[in-house]
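Milestone 3.1: sequence recovery, worked example.
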């Protein structure tokens, strides 16, 4: 029986790795998710064959309830709400790793010192990932203020909470059954909360990716405690993939991980409005439609505002109408567009926009200079020229889409508010930019109707 169990776990790991590989391409991502799902099903099924395992009925009930909740939630969730759903499930993974650590320390005991170290480390990391992911969920879901929540001496306070948890964890190495285990987990829970509060909503994709890496690491460490090879390998793979993704996203914003975690980026900048040159110039949908209709090339720059307004299907209709008139239409995708890696690509693909029309920042930026009209829909900081020229700007150095270099720019925006970074957007004040104020879906629909009349 042990050989069968280990063989199935090995197969599980192979399927997870192959599934992750398939998820790296939009064309194979769906099958990759299926492969990974089959792997998890096999891992759960073979777990029942472990000798000495009891409470099979409770396990079946728990799996059935959890599966039902996940199935209903997955069927109902919208694409725009996918980041918070991932944050929630990511938190569940961290919580599960923390629960394993608690059980191993309090009930089964961990005799070897080295395994006890790994168990406590996994418990600490998993608990931080649990509460941190829950805070990320509440911010993305709008249940908590998205902008950074800060207070005087916050970083010192956070450091003390972390050090306190680590010291209690070190004491547990000597006596894991002591009453301090509750204090250890409470400290870790609090650190996850306070660590995430000063991080703004715009940085949440990076934070979710980081917590995903921490969850993978925690699961891998608890795999040592349980002597479960599948958990060790799968947790390590997830941890490594999450770490790499976190670094790539931070690089895309030209910011360090420490700046994202501790910089409280996104707080309102109060003194930059007076430095703006030029004025905001509004345009109505009919005039904007004429500008688009008689262009040779149009680049659409979708942002999170488009996702929130669920405007992707109207954008697809607009793109089709323009192409029927002989206009070349391309889509410029910034690496941090949306709220998670690949979020914008999936939204546009869901609406039926071909992948061949989507271009990364390196591919599309040289084309803006020869573009007649750039249509910015719900994007802000990623098209702000201040990132290129204003050394005093908090977003200086962040790679941006060069919309300001196109011949004309139309920006669809709800109002005159600032972007996530809390700074004015220089693009909006340039001579070649016109502002189309309103809900993205509503305004794109107006453009569609106006185009049909031309």
């Amino acid at each position: 029986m042990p050989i069968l169990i280990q063989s199935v776990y090995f197969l599980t790991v192979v399927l997870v790795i192959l599934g992750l590989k398939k998820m790296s391409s939009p064309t194979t991502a769906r099958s990759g998710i299926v492969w990974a799902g089959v792997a998890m099903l096999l891992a759960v099924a073979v777990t029942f064959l472990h000798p000495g395992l009891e409470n099979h009925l409770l396990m079946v009930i728990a799996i059935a309830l959890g599966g039902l909740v996940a199935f209903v939630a997955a069927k109902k969730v919208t694409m725009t709400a996918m980041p918070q759903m991932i944050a929630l499930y990511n938190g569940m993974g961290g919580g599960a790793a923390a629960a394993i650590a608690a059980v191993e320390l309090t009930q089964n005991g961990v005799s070897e010192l080295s395994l006890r170290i790994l168990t406590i480390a996994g418990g600490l990391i998993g608990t931080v990932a649990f509460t941190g992911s829950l805070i990320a969920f509440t911010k993305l879901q709008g249940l908590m203020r998205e902008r950074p929540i800060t207070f005087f001496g916050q970083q010192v306070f956070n450091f003390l909470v972390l050090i306190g948890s680590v010291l209690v964890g070190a004491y547990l190495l000597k006596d894991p059954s002591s009453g301090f285990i509750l204090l250890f987990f409470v400290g870790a829970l609090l650190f996850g909360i306070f660590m995430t509060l000063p991080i703004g909503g715009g940085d949440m994709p990076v934070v979710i990716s980081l917590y995903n890496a921490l969850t993978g690491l925690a699961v891998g460490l608890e795999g040592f405690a349980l002597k479960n090879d599948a958990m060790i390998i799968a947790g390590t793979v997830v941890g490594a993939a999450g770490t790499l993704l976190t670094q790539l996203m931070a690089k895309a914003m030209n910011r360090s991980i420490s700046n994202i975690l501790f910089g409280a980026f996104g707080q309102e900048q109060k003194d930059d409005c007076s430095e703006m040159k030029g004025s905001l110039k509004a345009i109505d949908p009919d005039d904007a439609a004429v500008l688009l209709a008689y262009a040779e090339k149009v680049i659409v720059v979708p942002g999170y505002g488009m996702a929130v307004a669920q405007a992707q299907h109207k954008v697809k209709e607009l793109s089709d109408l323009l192409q029927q008139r002989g206009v070349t239409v391309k889509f410029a995708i910034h690496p941090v567009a949306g709220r998670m890696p690949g979020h914008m690509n999936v939204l546009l693909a869901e609406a039926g926009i071909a992948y061949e029309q989507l271009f990364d920042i390196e591919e599309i930026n040289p084309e803006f200079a020869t573009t007649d009209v750039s249509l910015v829909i719900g994007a802000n900081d990623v098209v702000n020229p201040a990132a290129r020229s204003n050394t005093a700007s908090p977003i200086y150095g962040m790679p941006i889409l060069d919309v300001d270099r196109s011949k004309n720019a139309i920006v669809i925006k709800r109002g005159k508010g600032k972007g996530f970074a809390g700074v004015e957007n220089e693009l909006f004040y340039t001579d070649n930019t016109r502002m189309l104020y309103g809900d993205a879906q509503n305004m794109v629909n107006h453009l569609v109707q106006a185009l049909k009349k031309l």
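The chain has a mean pLDDT of 86. DSSP finds 17 helices and six strands in the chain.
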